[in-house]
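Batch manifest, entry 17 of 40.
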Amino acid sequence: MLDMSLSIQDLEYFLLVFTRITCFFVSAPFFSTANVPYRAKVGIGFFTAMLVYQFVVPHEALVYNTVIGYAILVFKEAIVGLVIGLGANLPLAILTFSGKIMDMEVGLSMVNIYDPTTRVSEGFSGMFYHYMVLLILILSDMHHYLIKALVEAFTLIPTGHVTINADRLYASSLVFLADYISIGFRICLPIFAAILMVNVVLGVMAKTAPQMNMFSVGMQIKILMGLGIMFVTVALIPGASAFIYTEIKRMVVMMTQVFY
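Output type: structure tokens
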């Protein structure tokens, strides 16, 4: 049975736990989408904080002198939650990068679709792969892994004892940028290779038959070839989601290591 009685010290400690968890839900994938109401995010954060406070974190005395000192502790906990959630959300940007390369090769770079979950305009291919991979990650219980990682972070990063390691943050950023390029090109490689072959064929035809307008003909051929390759390679999307899944877990671990 839950013990709902709280002293001033316990309330201060609970607010730090609540701040970290709520900030995580604000920046983490699945939970941070714009179509999730803010009241739902706060409510999930509150009840999760109650469970974590009651059964997970040790109730230790906080070390601070003034209100400003406690405000600094709250600010540090907010940074921990935001950074860990952002680390889990960053790998999804790889899909947008791959989609932009696909759209540039196919000829759909001017096509933008409004995404109600992020409230920004994205390309057609990037949004398609983003929603497909996001759906697969939800079906594979990725959101459960994120909550478990957040709970385990309280053991690795004790509440009220947050330290920031700038060197690890810098190293984590470099690792992500390298994976950002490599994974992004792996996802868009089938369309990139197919359109490259089409460009070679069109270049040869332009030399052998200069009376044909290859610019007007080539645009339709590229779009048809690009959409055809996307249709054929739909079976490869689970493999792409596996790359994103692994990168999310890797980034969560690295971002957690930044604070201890």
